[in-house]
Amino acid sequence: MTDDSDLIIAANSGDKDSQELLIKKYKYLVRQKAASYYISGGDNEDIIQEGMIGLFKAIRDYKKGHDTTFHTFAALCINRQILTAIKASNRFKHGPLNSFVNIDDNNIELNGSDPESLFINREAKSIFEYNMHKVLSPLEERVLNLRIAGNSYAEIAKLLDKNVKVVDNTIQRIRRKVEKLIEKR
């Protein structure tokens, strides 16, 4: 088996085969890291994509001779890239771009920002949150709030003094309950 350092040097010198081999070798790590995160408004594939960006950055930036292995460095880069994406999505940084006013040929189109739509959306959100509060247990509510705040499964487990598997099972229950609420709408 080829040493990761040699593959990295070759990949950074333009060898596409070495780069592909590294990507195939560490894709499991990306999937493993992505499995414990949720991105607001996205799905698991979005998180995997962010993790792959982190892997590319790790390949680009790794320097042989440091005290850390490539595996450890790649895990750190993947994790940081995913967390950065999650934090950015939670900030609603691009909210103004998503509610635009299009003035074209004297036709004014308001996308989700007319008063009636805003009121209806706020009312629907309020009803949904009320129904969520009714169906979620206190533990599920705490886990959901911590997850929305950007905490990983491990961080939530530590904060609540629970096992990571308990957190994972709780999030799965929350997802099923949310799906049922959405189906009822």
Description:
This protein is mostly helical. The chain has 2 domains: 4-90, Orthogonal Bundle (Rna Polymerase Sigma Factor, Chain: A), CATH 1.10.1740; 111-184, Arc Repressor Mutant, subunit A, CATH 1.10.10. It contains 9 helices and 2 strands; from the N terminus they run H-H-H-H-H-E-E-H-H-H-H. It has helices spanning 4-12, 16-34, 44-61, 70-90, 95-98, 115-135, 138-148, 153-160, 164-184, and strands at residues 101-104, 107-110. Strands 1-2 form a two-stranded antiparallel ribbon. A hairpin with a 2-residue loop joins strand 1 and strand 2 (107-110). The radius of gyration is 21 Å and the shape is elongated.
Instruction: State the distance separating the first and last CA atoms.
Output: 55 Å
Biggest sheet, spatial arrangement of strands: 1-2
How many structural domains?
A: 2
Oligomer description: single chain
CATH architecture of the largest domain: Orthogonal Bundle
CATH fold assignment of the largest domain: Rna Polymerase Sigma Factor, Chain: A
CATH class of the largest domain: Mainly Alpha
| H-E string | HHHHHEEHHHH
- The CATH homology group name of the largest domain: RNA polymerase sigma factor, region 2, helix turn helix motif
Strand content: under 5%
**Average of pLDDT:** 80
Which overall shape is indicated by the principal axes computed on the Cα atoms? Answer: elongated
Most strands sheet: 2 strands, antiparallel
Helix content: over 70%
Number of strands: 2
- Give me the Rg, rounded: 21 Å
Structural class: mainly alpha
Q: Determine the number of helices (DSSP H or I, runs of at least 4 residues).
A: 9
The poorly predicted ranges are: 96-111
